[in-house]
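User: Please fill in residues for this 128-position structure.
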């Protein structure tokens, strides 16, 4: 059994910067594999590319002697119509505002406070 990815490239729709740029790797033998890395680097997108041949991106994936590739992910249920900052303000009581600010710093959320949940990476959603 072999999974091989050659020169994978991916850019989020509407972005000019590639998240995945010329990534190549090979995995042999059955087993459990996982991806680790900071939020927004394309881990979920890579898993979707490998598991779904209809995923829209530029890639070459070879599967040899593999009938099925399973992909599992977290699905956060956060409101998609609010920005993260507005949501945090709405759910934080006045007496906990300083704690909210501390947690925003700890979880490095300042750069996404104006973004809608639907635009965040899975890792960013998990931190929220």
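Assistant: Residues filled in for all 128 positions:
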């Amino acid at each position: 059994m072999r999974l091989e990815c050659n020169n994978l490239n991916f850019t989020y729709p509407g972005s000019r910067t590639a998240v995945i740029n010329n990534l190549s790797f090979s995995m042999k033998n059955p087993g459990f594999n996982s991806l680790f890395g900071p939020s927004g680097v394309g881990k979920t997108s890579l898993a979707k590319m490998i598991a779904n041949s209809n995923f829209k991106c530029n890639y070459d994936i070879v599967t040899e002697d593999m009938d099925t590739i399973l992909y599992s992910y977290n699905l956060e249920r956060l409101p998609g119509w609010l920005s993260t900052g507005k949501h945090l303000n709405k759910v934080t009581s006045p007496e906990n505002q300083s704690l909210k600010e501390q947690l925003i710093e700890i979880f490095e959320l300042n750069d996404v406070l104006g973004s809608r949940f639907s635009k965040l990476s899975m890792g960013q959603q998990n931190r929220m």
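For context: The helical segments are 43-51, 84-91, 97-106, 122-127.
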